[in-house]
Amino acid sequence: MARQGLTGQDRVGGPASTPAGVPRNDPPLDGLTLDGRGALFDQIKRAVAGQILRGRWQAGQRLPNEAELSSLYGVSRQTVHKAIALLAREGFLVRRRRAGTFVATGRRDRFALPIEDIGDVVAREGHVYEFRIRDRKTLKNGQGIRWPDLPDGAPILALECLHFSDGTPIQHERRLINLDAVPEVEEEPFDSVAPSRWLVDRVPWSSADHTVRAVNATAEMAALLGVEAGAACLSIRRQTMHLSRAVTLVHFLSVGDRFSLSGSSITDSATELNL
Predict the structure, then answer these.
(1) 62 and 84 Cβ atoms separated by less than 8 Å
(2) Any idea of the CA torsion for 239, 244, 247, 253, to the nearest 10 degrees?
């Protein structure tokens, strides 16, 4: 079997086959050496992503097909397929049926919000942090409250907390914790450490989903936060997971002019490549 050359053509014979009507503009394959770190599909993923992130492969360019890449690396098509699927999920590549796989145009990276304890934020800004637990109860999912990612009847610890900076309330928190995932939290009194700090320090997580909205404070929330009813606030809903198991679901309501939010646009491959 002839191996693919650095221009996408066979080293012996003519150009590789292309579907009728599809122009062939495969990117060159130089620089696609593997780094030897971890599983083969991860190495191929990093090699291809590196070409794109460094600008050596341009938007709209078509990749060699999976058979060609598997021949180049001496691996199975299944290994290549997994690498390409991960890159498509990250937005690096676009797959078109019967046409092939192309470098994406207008790639959309993930906007990552940090999972950070509010106490650390307040301290970093040079202020004194305090918190107050306003309510705490243990209940079953579906009994007065429903967490969509847990089965009915699952045990939940529900907390309500208020956070302060120099004695001024800046954030209200309502939090649900999955007691099947974190059973030890049921015995934690939270008399000296806030729930967010406790969870950050003790409980692993693998993914987090955020929903952010601008809202106006209700009369109840305005009274708690010491602002006028209707004041501009930032609402953040966050669910953290660990290995497909929900850990905590929390809703923060922060006073608009007392709180800021920042994050970064990242990809897994950029992180892996230290770019």
Answers:
(1) no
(2) 0
